[in-house]
Amino acid sequence: MLEQLIKDAIRKECRKTTQQEVAERAGISQTHINGLLNGRKSVKKMSIDTLARLFPDLKISLHGWEESGAVLSTIDQKILSFIQELDDEVKLDVFRTLIENFSDKKPVKKQKAG
User: Fold this and answer.
1) Nearest partner of 49 among 7, 97, 78, 89, judged by Cα
2) 57-112 pLDDT, tens per residue?
3) Cα dist from 48 to 14, 17, 52, 53, 74, whole Å
4) Distance CA 85, CA 82 (A)
5) Which of 71, 57, 41, 76 has the alpha carbon at shortest distance from 9?
6) Rounded Cα distance, 69 and 65, in Å
7) If 0-12 CB within 10 Å is exposed, 13-18 middle and 19+ buried, where does residue 17 land?
């Protein structure tokens, strides 16, 4: 379901411009965009950073995906504001902590750099 929503959004962006321009904005190749759209590549492996470059107005709520311009709860606004100010490594640490403390899945181990 989520994968199809992302594919549809990429397809919509490509109709506004070209696959090449969308790819350049996302920092990936046009071939990769084409592969995402025709199913040769998986949207599931796309990084949050790539999604943010593809959809700079994207809003994500802890309760689900929100379309641009949607009204977020006060707590969601505070959380997003806080998270957006962190550097990438700290963001990952925050998400690991959330998963480890609020998920019934196995904890995500932090990998050492290098």
Assistant:
1) 89
2) 776 655 554 444 556 678 877 887 888 888 888 888 888 888 788 766 555 555 55
3) 19, 22, 6, 9, 23
4) 6
5) 57
6) 12
7) exposed
| CA dihedral sign, ordered 35, 55, 52, 22 | positive
CB 46 within 8 A of CB 6: yes
Average pLDDT over residues 23-50: 89
pTM over 0.85: no
**Are the CB atoms for 42 and 14 separated by under 8 Å?**
no
Q: How far is the C-alpha of 7 from the C-alpha of 17, rounded, in Å? A: 15
For residue 28, give every residue at least 6 positions away whose Cβ sits within 8 Å of its Cβ, in sequence order, or none: 50
Tokens of 55: 């959809």
Q: Give the CB-side neighbour count of residue 111, counting CA atoms within 13 A.
A: 2
